[in-house]
């Protein structure tokens, strides 16, 4: 996961500190103001301000995907991958209903019952998901 450098973090008391200030109190733990991911403090090289790196082992990919510091390119790629899987799924007979589980982020077909969370209450119709989240300009194909 490519994450952008961030320069602000929450300390244990819930206060927002800059990476520069954080340099004054080493040994503390800081977390991302957006996703809550634990942060690694970097001193920065010559002429560069101190910055925080996401410690990506401390949270799941799903959490990082929601973070404002996620590299925008990663987001675009993920959207395209989902789109591709939908396009690939169009070969299936249209009579089979398609579902998208917003909880798990999984696509499936047939009975409204997500195999991952074993329920259908988080599932919405694939078509309405596409309408809401997938609208790439036609002249810009993925990839
Ligand atoms: Zn974050
Ligand atoms: Zn699910």
UniProtKB/TrEMBL annotation:
Ranges of residues in domain DUF3279: 96-130
Protein name: DNA-directed RNA polymerase, beta subunit/140 kD subunit
Organism: Cedecea colo
Pfam families: DUF7828 (PF25165), Zn_ribbon_11 (PF11682)
Domain of life: Bacteria
Residues annotated as domain DUF7828: 3-87
InterPro entries per the UniProt record, alphabetical: DUF3279, DUF7828
């Amino acid at each position: 996961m490519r994450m952008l450098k961030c320069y602000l973090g929450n300390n244990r008391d819930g206060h927002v500190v800059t990476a520069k200030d954080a340099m004054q109190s080493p040994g503390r733990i800081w977390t991302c103001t957006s996703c809550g991911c634990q942060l690694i403090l970097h001193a920065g090289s010559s002429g560069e301000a101190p910055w925080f790196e996401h410690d990506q082992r401390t949270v799941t990919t799903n959490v990082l995907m929601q973070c404002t510091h996620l590299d925008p390119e990663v987001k675009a790629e993920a959207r395209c991958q989902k789109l591709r899987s939908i396009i690939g799924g169009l070969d299936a007979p249209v009579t089979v209903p398609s579902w998208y589980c917003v909880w798990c982020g999984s696509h499936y077909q047939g009975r409204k019952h997500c195999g991952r969370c074993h329920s259908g209450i988080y599932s919405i119709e694939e078509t309405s998901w596409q309408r809401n989240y997938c609208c790439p300009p036609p002249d810009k194909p993925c990839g």
